[in-house]
Amino acid sequence: MASSFLPPERLLLGPGPCNTPREVLKALGRPTIGHLDPAFLDLMNQVRDRLRTLFGTRNELTIPISATGSGGMQAVLSNLIEPGDRVLVGVHGVFGKRFADCARRLGAEVVEVECTWGGTLDLSALSAAAEGRFKLVGAVHAETSTGVLLSPSCLGGLREIADRTGALLVLDTVTSLAGMPVELDERGVDATWSGTQKCLACPPGLSPISLSPRALEVLEARSTPVTSWYFDLSAISKYWGAERAYHHTAPINMIYGIHEAMGLALSEGMDERFERHTKAAKHLCAGLEERGLTLLVQESDRLAPLTSVRIPDGVEDAAFRERLLEEHGIEIGGGLGPLAGQIWRIGLMGENATKATAERFLHAYDALSR
Amino acid sequence: MASSFLPPERLLLGPGPCNTPREVLKALGRPTIGHLDPAFLDLMNQVRDRLRTLFGTRNELTIPISATGSGGMQAVLSNLIEPGDRVLVGVHGVFGKRFADCARRLGAEVVEVECTWGGTLDLSALSAAAEGRFKLVGAVHAETSTGVLLSPSCLGGLREIADRTGALLVLDTVTSLAGMPVELDERGVDATWSGTQKCLACPPGLSPISLSPRALEVLEARSTPVTSWYFDLSAISKYWGAERAYHHTAPINMIYGIHEAMGLALSEGMDERFERHTKAAKHLCAGLEERGLTLLVQESDRLAPLTSVRIPDGVEDAAFRERLLEEHGIEIGGGLGPLAGQIWRIGLMGENATKATAERFLHAYDALSR
Question: Does the pTM exceed 0.90?
Answer without folding.
Answer: yes
